[in-house]
Prior knowledge:
The protein has 114 residues and is an all-beta fold. The chain folds into two domains: 1-36, N-terminal domain of TfIIb; 57-113, SH3 Domains (SH3 type barrels), CATH 2.30.30.40. The protein is 0% helix and 29% strand. It has no helices and eleven strands. The strands form four sheets. Strands 1-2-3 form a three-stranded antiparallel beta sheet, with no helix packed on it. The protein has a three-stranded antiparallel beta sheet with strand order 7-4-11, with no helix packed on it. It has a three-stranded antiparallel beta sheet with strand order 8-9-10, with no helix packed on it. A hairpin with a 6-residue loop joins strand 5 (64-65) and strand 6 (72-73). The mean pLDDT is 87. This is Alkylphosphonate utilization operon protein PhnA. Residues 45-114 form the Protein YjdM C-terminal domain.
Amino acid sequence: MTIPACTQCQSVYTYYDGDLIICPECAHEWKEGEQATDDAQPLIVDAHGQPLEDGDNVTVIKDLKIKGSSSVVKVGTKVKGIRLVADATDGHNIDCKISGIGAMKLKSEFVKKA
């Protein structure tokens, strides 16, 4: 009986641990017969449903007050080169730098793809 190669890194050094197959090289665990899962970043969309990607340029569609400051990010502010954050627990799933303000996080529901 041969043990299948890892479904993620294709390592041949996998082993059984109970009903799971484990890869010691990438620490991936799966049950025999499971299809390989694509651990790609979840789909993040803008306010109009357009999918966003790292490096996209977006435009703010609503005045956004900056917490702890008297500054406001105005409607129409262009943000260049965003970075998506997949595991954002507070809903702020975009990291960016806004000129005149600096680094901050935005929610994708308040931007549209430029």
